């Protein structure tokens, strides 16, 4: 029993009680305001809406733990949706189109990583470049007009349900499980923590920070490509103007989930909770008819809350360390 | 007036550690009592217990025969117990008098501060102490030594001052400043105060203290009269073993074998044309001033900095290391100079820090780590290098400096290297851990490793090395065998000479 508890704690990353409490509060609040909030349909809707943010948040979990960041996912997801729809409309087989889209996403990841590794740009600024450039290409390749999807397989991807749960949700769950395993149990995962904590020391310890950074950005690129394609399938069209501010939600979710903005700390378990929280929050705001202008304000405040709790957690860690070193020093 | 302080069975726990273990002893007026012990022996914890910063878990302390329970330092100060810390506890923007009477400035009936009176009172104390400072001077304009004096006067200005503790008071003082501090301490002593003096400097302890209380691992060992016990004896009591002749005690019965590493004419952005050889079983010292290029030479060899030209041969075969990872695979590893920023991975556990260089060995083709092997090798490292940690899963930052450094050594020894480079391995580590490192270094050499030891401590580099290379402004300036090595010789080789200085300015 005791052991189960510690296991559970490890899985969700120890100090997640506040986060779980916040989720409960958000659910309780919106249910009081609109009792449909807890309906099955709505819960499924929340999960569906969370699926794209979830995929991107996986990428952000890797990148932010590694001491990086990425502001381009919104653009890349939109670009990917448009690209897949365009290829299919030209008669390319859906799966071939998907593979090409994924390769394109990976290339954008490599581009981001090169800017960080080779011209030593801060990831925040480097990916601002791709955010704009890739959004531009999303419009350029389709001439600015959304591309409708008529391919049957493609449409099915958007409509398919397994055990009553839409396919996109299953994809997100699978991706979270796999990427969580990679983060916790593999050499690559351990390396991410190491370079995020202290890049110089990690390099001197025999790790290759540049390669780890490239891999992380490539993973993000792939997540955006898959997420963007599925999003297009759900919308029945590739839309160049879609997914603006996607990275904003994903970063908020990841920080809420306990990944430290300064790198080296966090877990995939926390990210899941963060994604659930932010998507419940967003859906709730719409359901209780908060005007969309005010939703921006609310989202900003939620990010502030996330960053503040990150700050407090950091203080707490420092305090613990101080206590511990006091006893040794 | 006779004052006494008595500790009875004081015990203090911190998570996982007994910081003080039934400490009992007695101190009386007119004595300067030294606290002597390694880092972590419990000296500071005891001071903080006496001044109310910590509450003891067991036991009690008596001031003048009466049990005292200070809840915080303020209560202790009110009761006449003051601690002078290394870091100044004064307000820089205030005047000397304002600092001395902080919180108890003389006031008139309306509660208005009477600055003139405060200055007069402060002037009297300053005269008493014989100091050339003025009550109205701002403290920030004083030297560090006088700032410390202001703190002492602040404690002294309390009529009821009984105990005054100094925690490494001379750390940033010059010789003449130390003299005037000692004058003041003698004055306090003659006035019947109890003086507790924490310091690592034997010479000072000999000069100013009457008795020495020795602490080891949270336990009180004994109190001896200063001068009656030799320095070597004191150190033995403090570390629990004889390290008086620490270098002579090392087991150096080993054979120096064939050439292991040959470095030929290497240059980087930081060093020029460096060549040397290292043999199996040899400890090769690198001496020289900080910035002479010792660290940078090693960084070029392991591929941390780019090697512009030159060649490295290991066991006769040419090797190329573009990165520390390559060097590790070639069998050359470096324990870096700055433990905190280059050695440890502060966000990871002890086990992860030890295993970080073994990720390849511990994982399968898919990169999945084999937990059991990680657990096994972490346990082995902790045992082999006697790393003191409550658990392998503890964050490495929670360990003491010496134990953190052992983790880094364990990390590299786990990769089974041929050449081990140690860059200032004992910097900031206490005496006991230092001697452990020395034994380790000798053991590594005995096993046939080639060890390169960079050290700025001359006795260390002379005591451990079979041969010493001296560097001076990016180049090797000389080589000395162990039997010829003296401190002046190494210093002479390490100092810049005039034409080199000119060259640098070009």
Structure description:
The complex is a heterodimer of chains A (329) and B (506). By secondary structure, chain A is mainly alpha-helical. Chain A has one domain (33-328): Orthogonal Bundle (ABC transporter involved in vitamin B12 uptake, BtuC). Helix content of chain A is 78%, strand content 2%. Chain A has helices spanning 2-12, 17-33, 40-65, 73-89, 94-118, 123-142, 152-159, 167-185, 187-197, 199-204, 209-235, 246-256, 268-287, 292-328; strands at residues 147-148, 161-162, 165-166, 237-238. Chain A has a two-stranded antiparallel ribbon with strand order 1-4. In chain A, strands 2-3 form a two-stranded antiparallel ribbon. Chain A is globular, with a radius of gyration of 20 Å. Chain B has 506 residues and is an alpha/beta fold. Helices cover 34% and strands 24% of the residues of chain B. Chain B is built from 18 helices and 20 strands. In chain B, the strands form 4 sheets. In chain B, strands 6-7-8-3-9-10 form a 6-stranded mixed sheet, with helices on both faces. Chain B has a 6-stranded mixed sheet with strand order 16-17-18-13-19-20, sandwiched between helices. In chain B, a hairpin with a 2-residue loop joins strand 9 and strand 10 (219-225). Chain B is elongated and about 90 Å long. Mean pLDDT of chain B is 86; it is low at 498-506. The A-B interface holds A 182, 185-188, 190-191, 193-194, 196-198, 200-208, 264-265, 321, 323-329 and B 14-17, 19, 39-40, 44, 302, 304, 323-325, 328, 334, 336, 341-348, 352, 356-357, 359-360, 362-363, 366-369, 371, 394-395, 397-400, 403, 411, 415.
């Amino acid at each position: 029993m005791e052991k189960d508890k510690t296991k559970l704690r490890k899985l969700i990353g120890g100090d997640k009680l506040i986060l779980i409490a916040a989720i409960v509060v958000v659910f309780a609040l919106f249910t009081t305001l609109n009792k449909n909030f807890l309906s099955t349909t709505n819960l499924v809707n929340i999960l569906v809406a969370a699926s794209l943010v979830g995929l991107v948040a996986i990428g952000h979990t890797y990148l932010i733990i590694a001491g990086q960041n990425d502001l381009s996912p919104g653009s890349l997801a939109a670009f990917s949706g448009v690209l897949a729809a365009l290829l299919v409309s030209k008669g390319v087989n859906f799966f071939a189109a998907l593979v090409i889209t994924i390769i394109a996403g990976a290339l954008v990841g490599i581009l981001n990583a090169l800017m960080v590794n080779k011209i030593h740009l801060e990831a925040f600024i480097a990916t601002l470049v791709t955010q704009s450039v890739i959004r531009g290409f999303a419009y350029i390749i389709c001439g600015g007009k959304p591309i409708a999807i008529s391919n049957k397989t493609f449409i099915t991807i958007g409509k398919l349900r397994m055990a009553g749960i839409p396919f996109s949700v299953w994809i997100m769950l699978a991706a979270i499980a796999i990427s969580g395993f990679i983060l916790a149990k593999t050499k690559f995962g351990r390396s991410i923590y190491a370079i995020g904590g202290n890049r110089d020391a990690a390099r001197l310890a025999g790790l290759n920070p540049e390669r780890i950074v490239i891999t992380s950005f490539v993973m993000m690129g792939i997540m955006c490509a898959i997420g963007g394609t599925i999003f297009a399938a759900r919308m029945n069209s590739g839309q160049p103007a879609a997914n603006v501010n996607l990275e904003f939600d994903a970063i908020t979710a990841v920080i809420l989930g306990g990944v430290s903005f300064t790198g080296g700390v966090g877990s995939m378990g926390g990210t899941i909770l963060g994604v659930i929280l932010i998507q419940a929050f967003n859906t709730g705001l719409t359901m209780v008819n908060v005007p969309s202008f005010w939703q921006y304000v609310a989202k900003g405040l939620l990010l502030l809350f996330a960053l503040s709790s990150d700050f407090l957690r950091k203080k707490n860690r420092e305090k613990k360390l101080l206590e511990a070193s006091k006893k040794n020093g | 007036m006779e004052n006494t302080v008595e500790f009875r069975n004081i015990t203090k726990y911190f998570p996982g550690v007994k910081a003080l273990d039934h400490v009992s002893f007695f101190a009386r007026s007119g004595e300067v009592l030294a606290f002597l012990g390694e880092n972590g022996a419990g000296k500071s914890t005891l001071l903080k217990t006496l001044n109310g910063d910590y509450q003891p878990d067991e036991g009690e302390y008596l001031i003048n025969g009466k049990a005292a329970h200070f809840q915080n330092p303020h209560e202790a100060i009110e009761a006449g117990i003051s601690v002078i810390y290394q870091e100044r506890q004064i307000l820089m923007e205030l005047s000397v008098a304002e600092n001395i009477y902080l919180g108890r400035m003389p006031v008139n009936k309306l509660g208005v501060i009477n600055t003139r009176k405060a200055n007069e009172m402060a002037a009297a104390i300053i005269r008493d102490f014989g100091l050339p400072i003025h009550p109205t001077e701002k403290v920030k304009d004083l030297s560090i030594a006088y700032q410390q004096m202001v703190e002492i006067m602040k404690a002294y200005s309390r009529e009821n001052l009984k105990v005054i503790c100094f925690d490494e008071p001379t750390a940033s003082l010059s010789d003449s400043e130390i003299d005037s501090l000692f004058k003041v301490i003698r004055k306090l002593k003659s006035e019947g105060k109890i003086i507790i003096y924490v310091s690592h400097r034997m010479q000072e302890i000999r000069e100013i203290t009457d008795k020495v209380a020795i602490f080891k691992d949270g336990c009180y060992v004994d109190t001896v009269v200063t001068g009656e016990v030799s320095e070597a004896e004191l150190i033995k009591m403090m570390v629990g073993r004889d390290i008086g002749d620490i270098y002579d005690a090392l087991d150096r019965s080993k054979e120096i074998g064939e050439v292991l590493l040959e470095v030929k004419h290497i240059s980087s952005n930081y060093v020029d044309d460096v060549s040397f050889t290292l043999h199996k079983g040899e400890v090769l010292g690198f001496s020289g001033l900080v910035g002479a290029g010792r660290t940078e030479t090693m960084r070029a060899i392991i591929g941390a900095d780019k090697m512009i030209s030159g060649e490295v041969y290991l066991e006769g075969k040419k090797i190329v290391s573009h990165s520390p990872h390559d060097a590790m695979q070639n069998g050359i590893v470096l324990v870096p100079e700055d433990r905190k920023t280059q050695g440890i991975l502060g966000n990871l556990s002890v086990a992860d820090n030890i295993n970080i260089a073994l990720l390849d060995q511990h994982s399968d083709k898919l990169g999945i780590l084999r937990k059991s092997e990680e657990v096994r090798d972490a346990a082995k490292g902790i045992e082999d290098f006697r790393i003191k940690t409550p658990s392998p899963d503890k964050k490495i930052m929670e360990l003491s400096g010496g134990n953190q450094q052992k983790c880094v050594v364990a990390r590299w020894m786990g990769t089974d290297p041929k050449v081990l480079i140690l860059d200032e391995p004992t910097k900031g580590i206490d005496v006991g851990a230092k001697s452990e490192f020395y034994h380790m270094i000798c053991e590594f050499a005995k096993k046939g490793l080639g060890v390169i030891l960079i050290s700025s401590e001359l006795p260390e580099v002379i005591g451990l090395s079979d041969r010493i290379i001296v560097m001076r402004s990016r180049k090797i300036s000389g080589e000395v065998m162990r039997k010829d090595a003296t401190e002046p010789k190494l210093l002479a080789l390490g100092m810049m000479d005039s034409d080199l200085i000119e060259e640098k300015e070009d």
